[in-house]
Amino acid sequence: MFVDQNGRIVYTTTKGSDSAKAVADPDLAQTGLARLLKRLETADPGTVLFEDFAAYPVMARPMKAAGTPSTGVSSVDATASGLGLTSVTNSNSSTSSNGLGNFLLNSDVNSTLTTLTNAGSALDSAASNLGSNLSVVQNRQDFSKQLINVLQTGSANLTNADLNQEAANSQALSTRQSMGISALSLANSAQQGVLTLLR
Question: Could you give the 3-state DSSP secondary structure of residue 49?
Answer without folding.
Answer: strand
